[in-house]
Specification:
Elements: E1 4-7, H1 26-36, E2 42-45, E3 50-52, H2 54-62, E4 68-73, H3 77-93, H4 98-110, H5 122-129, H6 137-142, H7 164-177, H8 185-197
Parallel strand pairs: 2-4
Antiparallel strand pairs: 1-4, 2-3
Helix pairs in contact: 1-2, 7-8
């Protein structure tokens, strides 16, 4: 049976080789802890090196917590590293059922729950709470029948919030890989799409 003990965050050590970048999530997690408490223990090895829970640990220190719940696991260094990677990676596999999520958020909003405390930005909340409409292909086509005053036209696209950083990084990598010199990010992204589709621009 796993034993939970309360420990001073300063006695815990971060995994120095942690490949997960989590600084941008600290403020959101700190808000969640303030609203709902520290309800998920930090996992560490027998040397008090954090295995899972780096963001919660940083958030706890940021808001001045003197003790946090900790579970200590007896693991070898290789087991610790493997578990830490698996814990982060498996969390990426799940996806959202957005209609269900929207319904839950609307219900929480009606019950006066502070939705930003759930970790969403105002823009994300607006997108989630806005009822999606059927795509208007006719209006999409009409944009190209209009006389253009520029050499470029803006094509609106949407990607899920979970994949936006992946898309951004992929575009940056392809811009560098193909030697694209365009300074306008939108034009550079268009050129990347052109490369992928084999369309010269």
């Amino acid at each position: 049976m796993l034993k939970i003990q309360q420990m001073d965050p300063s006695t815990l050590k971060p995994w120095e080789d942690n490949p997960r970048i989590n600084d941008e999530a600290v403020d959101a997690v700190a808000k969640s802890i303030k609203s709902f408490g520290f309800n998920v223990p930090i996992l560490c090895d027998q040397k008090f090196t954090i295995i899972a829970g780096h963001t919660r640990w940083k958030a706890a220190k940021k808001i001045g917590m003197k003790s946090v719940p900790v579970i200590t696991l007896e693991l070898s260094e290789a087991q610790r590293d493997a578990f830490a990677v698996a814990d982060n990676k498996t969390g990426e596999i799940a996806d959202w059922d957005y209609p269900k999520l929207r319904k839950i958020l609307e219900n929480l909003k009606c019950k006066k729950i502070n939705l930003p405390s759930l970790g969403y930005s105002p823009g994300e909340l607006q997108a989630l709470l806005t009822q999606q409409k059927e795509f208007d292909w006719k209006a999409f086509e009409e944009r190209f029948k209009t006389k253009l005053t520029s050499m470029y036209v803006l094509l609106p696209i949407k990607v899920s919030m979970e994949t936006k950083e992946i898309f951004k990084e992929a575009i940056k990598e392809l811009v560098d890989e193909h030697g694209i010199k365009e300074k306008d990010p939108a034009k550079a992204a268009g050129q990347v799409l052109g490369v992928l589709l084999g369309v010269s621009q």
